[in-house]
């Protein structure tokens, strides 16, 4: 093989190996972070940092509202409401609800764009911790990898505890404790069934419902979740 050909082959090899090496290093970073969070609480998440940056564009001194509380100090009403509303099979699946994903894929195919994700609680946590709110199949693939890392390294209760403390409930409002204080002036431990159901219903579009708290949809969907809460299985 000539020197020129060897040089071309070397460049082609690096064009293939460099992206694979970068991909592997990124996954290793995610894995180590998740391993650390098995018994250490996350400080901020990707979603929190993005929201704070957006708020500070208008007000340089703006801060997000979030206060970590242990799993036991979050009302079971909220836990049951969120499972009933967001992921009824949370305690049983391995992190991904493939039937829900198939329905989301079919819906996206009809719309010719990504409009639905079919995400479980674990998938939502994966996205909130590390990714952005953009919708693409590439981001969805990364979300699935992180999801299985979470399910492999953590117990379901720990996954749910972190989710409850970092999920967005409104503009600049993250986690159950901040949400309970923001909307009802109580602690997360003291949320009643109706309050919890209403917060759970807000989750798919929290910033919108923060501004439209008298929405008819919000009221009707809250009644539905109230009826389903008692059958929700906690991890």
Q: Care to give the gist of this entry?
A:
By secondary structure, the protein is mainly α.
Question: Can you offer a commentary on this structure?
Answer:
The protein is mostly helical. It has eleven helices and two strands. Strands 1-2 form a two-stranded antiparallel sheet. β1 and β2 (173-174) form a beta hairpin. α5 crosses α6 (137-153) and α9 crosses α11 (216-228). The radius of gyration is 20 Å and the shape is elongated. The model has no long low-confidence stretch (mean pLDDT 89).
Q: How many H/I helices?
A: 11
Instruction: Provide the low-confidence segments as ranges.
Output: none
Q: For the report, how would you describe the main beta sheet?
A: 2 strands, antiparallel
Helix coverage percent of residues?
55-70%
Number of DSSP E strands: 2
Structural class: mainly alpha
Strand content: under 5%
Distance between the termini: 62 Å
Mean pLDDT: 89
Strand order of the largest sheet: 1-2
Spatial extent as radius of gyration: 20 Å
Shape: elongated
H and E string: HHHHHHHEEHHHH
Function: Peptidoglycan polymerase that catalyzes glycan chain elongation from lipid-linked precursors.
Keywords: Cell inner membrane, Cell membrane, Cell shape, Cell wall biogenesis/degradation, Glycosyltransferase, Membrane, Peptidoglycan synthesis, Transferase, Transmembrane, Transmembrane helix
Pathway: Cell wall biogenesis; peptidoglycan biosynthesis
Protein name: Biosynthetic peptidoglycan transglycosylase
Keywords:
single chain, 235 residues, mainly alpha, two-stranded antiparallel sheet, 11 helices, 2 strands, peptidoglycan synthesis, cell membrane
């Amino acid at each position: 093989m000539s020197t020129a050909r060897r040089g071309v082959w070397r460049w082609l090899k690096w064009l293939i190996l460099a992206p694979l090496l970068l991909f592997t290093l990124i996954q290793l970073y995610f894995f180590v972070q998740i391993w650390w969070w098995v018994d250490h609480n996350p400080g901020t998440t990707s979603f929190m940092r993005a929201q704070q940056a957006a708020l500070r564009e208008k007000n340089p001194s703006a801060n997000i509202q979030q206060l970590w509380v242990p799993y036991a100090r979050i009302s079971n009403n909220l836990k049951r409401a969120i499972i009933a509303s967001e992921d009824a099979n949370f305690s049983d699946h391995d992190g991904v609800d493939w039937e829900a994903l198939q329905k989301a894929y079919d819906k996206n195919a009809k719309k010719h764009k990504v409009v639905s994700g079919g995400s479980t609680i674990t998938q939502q946590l994966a996205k909130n911790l590390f990714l952005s709110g953009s919708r693409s199949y590439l981001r969805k693939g990364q979300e699935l990898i992180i999801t299985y890392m979470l399910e492999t390294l953590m117990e379901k209760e720990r996954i749910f505890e972190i989710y409850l403390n970092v999920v967005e409930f409104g503009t600049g409002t993250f986690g159950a404790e901040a949400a309970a204080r923001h909307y009802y002036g109580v602690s997360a431990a003291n949320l009643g069934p109706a309050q919890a159901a209403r917060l759970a219903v807000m989750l798919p579009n929290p910033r919108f419902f923060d501004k439209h708290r008298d929405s008819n949809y919000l009221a009707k969907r809250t009644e539905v979740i109230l009826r389903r809460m008692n059958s929700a299985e906690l991890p």
